Amino acid sequence: MEQPLILELAEWLDTPPGRYVQAWEQKQIDAMVGNVFGYHAIQIGLPHWDLLRANRIPYKGRTRVLFDTDAHAGEVVVADPENLPFDTQSIDLLVLPHVLETSARPHQILREAERVLMPEGRVVISGFNPWSLWGASDRIPGLDPLLPVPAHLQVSLPRLKDWFKLLSFELDRGRFGCYAPPCTSQAWLDRWAFMDAAGDRWWPVCGAVYVVSAVKRVTAMTLVEPKWKKARKRVQRQAVVTGRHSDSVL
Predict the structure, then answer these.
(1) What is the 3-state secondary structure (H, E, C) of 5-66?
(2) Do 94 and 60 touch, CB atoms closer than 8 A?
(3) Are 169 and 122 contacting, i.e. CB atoms less than 8 angstroms apart?
(4) Which residues, other chains included, contact 175 with Cβ-Cβ below 8 Å and sequence gap of 6+?
């Protein structure tokens, strides 16, 4: 049986470029979830990587896919990201690290996130940028792809923004990061470390990865009264007006 992409990604995160990505994403997500309040926070996928450590919500959990036989079986929930086993409007914070791009139905995952989140709940999503140097290396013939997720499966930020608009999410903030050229050794990643500061300034949309935060907005409800109630009110108003006319005649 072919190994799911999410498990290939978990193995890749233990390589030099994977640790480089992890360090940057951890810093961004820590900042985004640190001040999110509520009662329930859930991380979907990659349970060995704690992306809720900076959050102070009392109940925090992580999920894993069925095929993940890691040593976290007793600590996390086995769940399909496309069909989350949580009640509607029961979660205050969701973190989805590279989950959309490792699924065949990323839009359905986002729909599930919208379903389980409370009004004003927050979702934090990370993913690879298909328009970065890392994503481009997957399209150049003769080059071995650096990333475990093929470029055609990676969800670009403009595409993600479109999905947000179709649902009830409002983009709150986000960042691109990891500007070093594609390389597999720690030595070369260290040599290109200066690119991170330069990239933020000169080509911010070309980072290898991104992290975004969005809030679930729920429009105010307008109560619609039964027609018979409206008709009764009109009759009452007419009676009052008629009474005032008779008083003026007297």
Answers:
(1) HHHHHHHHCCCHHHHHHHHHHHHHHHHHHCCCCCCEEEEECCCCCCCCCCCCCCEEEEEECC
(2) no
(3) no
(4) 28, 207, 210, 211
> Quick one: tokens of 192?
């290109």
Contact partners, residue 174, CB within 8 Å, separation at least 6 = 157, 210, 211, 212, 213
Query: Which H or E run contains 156?
Result: none
pLDDT tens-place string over residues 13-70: 999 999 999 999 999 999 999 999 999 999 999 999 999 999 999 999 999 877 665 5
Within 8 A by CB and 6+ apart from 138, the residues are 145, 146, 147, 150, 151
- Give the count of beta carbons closer than 10 Å to the beta carbon of residue 159: 15
Pairing of strands 169-177, 209-216: antiparallel
Output the furthest CA–CA distance in the chain (Å, rounded): 100
Q: What is the pTM for the complete model shown? A: 0.83
The torsion angle over the Cα atoms of residues 51, 54, 58 and 61, rounded to 10 degrees, is 10
